[in-house]
Amino acid sequence: MTLQILPVIMSGGSGTRLWPLSTPAAPKQFHALATDNTMIQETVLRLIGDSFLRPVAICGRGHLDLVTAQLEAIGHPPQEVILEPFGRNTAAVAAMAALSGLALAPEALILMVPADHVIAQPSAFLEAVMAAGETAKTRIVTFGIQPSHPETGFGYIERGAELSPGNYEIARFLEKPDLATATQYVAGGSHVWNAGIFLFSPQVMLEELELHAPEVLAACRTAYETARREGPAVHLDDVIFGQVPSISIDYAVMEHTQRSAVVPCDIGWADVGGFRELWRLADKDNHGNHVKGDAILIEAENCLIRNDGGPIVAIIDMADIMVISTPSGILIAPLSRAQDVKKAAEAAKSFLNLGAKS
Amino acid sequence: MTLQILPVIMSGGSGTRLWPLSTPAAPKQFHALATDNTMIQETVLRLIGDSFLRPVAICGRGHLDLVTAQLEAIGHPPQEVILEPFGRNTAAVAAMAALSGLALAPEALILMVPADHVIAQPSAFLEAVMAAGETAKTRIVTFGIQPSHPETGFGYIERGAELSPGNYEIARFLEKPDLATATQYVAGGSHVWNAGIFLFSPQVMLEELELHAPEVLAACRTAYETARREGPAVHLDDVIFGQVPSISIDYAVMEHTQRSAVVPCDIGWADVGGFRELWRLADKDNHGNHVKGDAILIEAENCLIRNDGGPIVAIIDMADIMVISTPSGILIAPLSRAQDVKKAAEAAKSFLNLGAKS
After folding, report:
1. ipTM (interface pTM)
2. Considering only alpha carbons, which residue of chain A is nearest residue B323?
């Protein structure tokens, strides 16, 4: 029998690292960053075919319309949209995914994927998923990204003994390393990036949550069962969901369970954690500029220029900068300062709050 | 008897050097650049008092509402607004000024001033005007700006013999010099900048136009006399005004007449020909930044940030640049490239035209 997989799209997060493109009202998964589709659309579009059921999405309450509209626009409306009144970290998301899977397709495996990652080689990703299918019937599989460089911004997973071709036990989870440590990891060949992509059966996840994070599971089960349903929308109650401890699935389950596995893969994965990464991934002209939207470049080099619906942007004699123009704000900074964008986002928030008060 | 002066405000010009702030629909004289008033408002506000009649404005046809509204807003509505269907240079403007003055106040002197100049010491300017009053009854007086530095972007006037205290004959007009020549001019002490500000009696101007530019005068007279009038508006006819030769008052009259004079003055004058000049003139914070409108500065130095009604602008780690954000466009460039702003303005024009066609 063919493997049946239920994609569960994790559309949480309202990061400030891509402000003003990404805002609380429309975080980055709802924007077209690397392609003409939005990131959540790309995420769903790479998980279609005979093995895949219609997706489930888990998102913030305010994003119901965005999720529904964007997935309907590509012809893949969600079976369920589970609406969190506020974020409660990824253990709660995994619990909701398992509960939803048990209700909708108990025989299927659940592929839980973030809505805001780039995967440049989707067919390699699908191969990795299929290669993990057998293991995932009894273990929670996480996909580890073969590191291309000694990145210090990600957590790592060290693989253990081989379970079957391409499937390994997990020796340990490792926090974000310093550069020397990251360099050792890359040289050693047995460490991969922790990308937060999981394949599991609902039963196994529920059993492991029961064992290692029973409070998370109990509160999530009550919240899921008492939720108000309206079409595909599953409205979780504020008070009940507020009882769920906020903890990551790695801390809650993965670092403790005996039933885990890692499948290393090389799939052109990227987190797009900031504008420098976006510029690195994007198509560029002969001068190293990536331009999206109406813009005039006069002597510009290695710039990221995005004009998302604002007035025309003109740049003269600038290099290595980003200019992001949206109706929410305009950001101008060196690409090398991409990590400081969140400061601007925070300041913009305070600024707008002050303005609203006065 | 007190000197009576009719201010004639020259509000032509639709320069591209301050794009996107300045646009054909609203050139720089209609914007608040150096103060909270617009430049045309400042121009009128420095010419009020017992000696001054209500002003006349000469502007492009499309700017009637702007001129009227901005002068009414400061309580000095114009007596006449002479509407040119297109620009025909400054000889035509001087002729219209003289014809209007003859009609409205034949005994008054006409003070013809550009609407888009900064004069930081208005009382010094008024003193210079008063000091020129006697001479202006028989000569066309131009006010020469004492040069503060060897500027190569302006024409110069060399003064001749003294006519009366502070009033001089004009030895010659000089085109924009190279730096060596400009340095000599400044060192010599007998050269001043040609600012295009004139004081004259309508009769003298009309006689000198008749003598040196009879075609300009004849066509302007016909246009002024046949104009359609509606309240203060004087609508010049396209075809008739189209007969007026396009020539500057300097070329047409000033370089030929025997009846000219120059009054040197030191009045904090500036042309605001570009954003670098605007930054130089503007109030700045401790880091050398001039900020107008909603903006967030994180590690910014010596920047000009103007947000005229756009979304909030955030700058991280930038120095010596200008950011001009308006509903018409967003400009980002080093202040040192202010002279290239017109390239961006031209490109924006082509871009928008292309967009409109497609």
Report:
1. 0.79
2. A332
CATH of domain A5-270: 3.90.550.10
* Residue B17, pLDDT above cutoff 90: no
Contact of B325 with chain A, judged by CB distance below 8 Å, is answered with: yes
Which residue among A312, A317, A337 places its CB closest to the CB of B316? A337
**Can you tell me the distance from the alpha carbon of B129 to that of B125, in angstroms, rounded to the nearest whole number?**
6
The domain limits of chain A are 5-270, 279-357
pLDDT at B29 over 90: yes
Give the pLDDT band of residue B35 (cuts 50, 70, 90): confident
In angstroms, the CA B173 to CA B175 distance is: 7
Give chain A as a 3 state SS string.
Answer: CCCCEEEEEEECCCCCCCCCCCECCECHHHCCCCCCCCHHHHHHHCCCCCCECCCEEEEEHHHHHHHHHHHHHCCCCCCEEEEECCCCHHHHHHHHHHHHHHHHCCCCEEEEEECCCEECCHHHHHHHHHHHHHHHCCCEEEEEECCCCCCCCCCEEEEEEEEECCEEEEEEEECCCCHHHHHHHHHHCCEEEEEEEEEECHHHHHHHHHHHCHHHHHHHHHHHHHCEEECCEEECCHHHHCCCCCCCHHHHHHCCCCCEEEEEECCCEECCCCHHHHHHHCCCCCCCCEEECCEEEEEEECCEEEECCCCCEEEEEEECEEEEEECCEEEEEEHHHHHHHHHHHHHHHHHHHHHHHC
Is B329 part of the contact surface with chain A (CB cutoff 8 Å)?
A: yes
Residue A14 has what pLDDT? 65
- Name, in order, each residue with C-beta under 8 angstroms of A3's C-beta and a sequence gap of 6 or more: A51, A109, A130, A133
User: Chain A residue with minimal CA distance to B316?
Assistant: A333
- pLDDT of A190-229, one tens digit each? 999 999 999 999 999 999 999 999 999 999 999 999 999 9
Q: Give chain B positions within 8 Å (CB) of A340.
A: 298, 316-317
Paired tokens of B212: 């040196």
- Token pair 């191969």: residue: A127
pLDDT in tens, B297-310: 999 999 999 999 88
Residues of chain A numbered 17-76 and touching chain B (CB < 8 Å) = 19-20
Mean pLDDT of A232-246: 97
Q: What is the mean pLDDT of residues A142-150?
A: 96
- Read off the pTM: 0.80
* Per-residue pLDDT band at A356 (split at 50, 70, 90): very low
**Total Cβ atoms within 10 A of residue A270:** 19
